[in-house]
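Figure 6 in text form: structure in, sequence out.
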């Protein structure tokens, strides 16, 4: 049963759950400005090491992927050694910038609709059978 007040209640609930445009643009902006800096720490000797910062939601939101691999080996002395390898990737700033620029209409993408003969008349579309036959002819030996 579809009643206006039920439809409005559903729409209002979905609007609350959805991400507003402003929030989406802010998050894209954070990704566009994101760097690896919050994830790099130096030890006492100045050697860099990668970390995942705690209590830094903004830095953690930059993470696209985290992979932790543990590997154990038994040494000649019989001791077991555990090696942990952590890999992570942040969201691509270039991709975020590209999406922001598109959202703001910065790109003026135009499509040339002219046919090869200069007219505005497109060639007749090829049906799937004709397309398949044309591809098979091209793939035959000697072509």
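Output sequence:
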């Amino acid at each position: 049963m579809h009643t206006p007040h039920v439809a409005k209640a559903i729409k209002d609930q979905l609007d609350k759950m959805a991400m507003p445009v402003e929030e989406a643009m802010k998050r894209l902006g954070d990704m566009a400005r994101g760097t690896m800096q919050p994830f790099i720490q130096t030890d006492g000797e100045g050697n860099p090491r990668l970390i995942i910062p705690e209590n830094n939601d903004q830095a953690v939101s930059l993470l696209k992927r985290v992979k932790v691999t543990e590997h154990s080996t038994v040494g000649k002395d019989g001791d077991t050694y555990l090696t942990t390898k952590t890999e992570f990737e942040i969201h691509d700033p270039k991709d975020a910038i590209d999406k922001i620029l598109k959202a703001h209409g910065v790109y003026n993408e135009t499509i040339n609709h002219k046919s090869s003969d200069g007219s505005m008349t497109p060639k007749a579309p090829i049906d799937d059978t004709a397309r398949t036959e044309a591809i098979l002819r091209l793939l035959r030996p000697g072509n």
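Caption detail: The chain has five helices and four strands.
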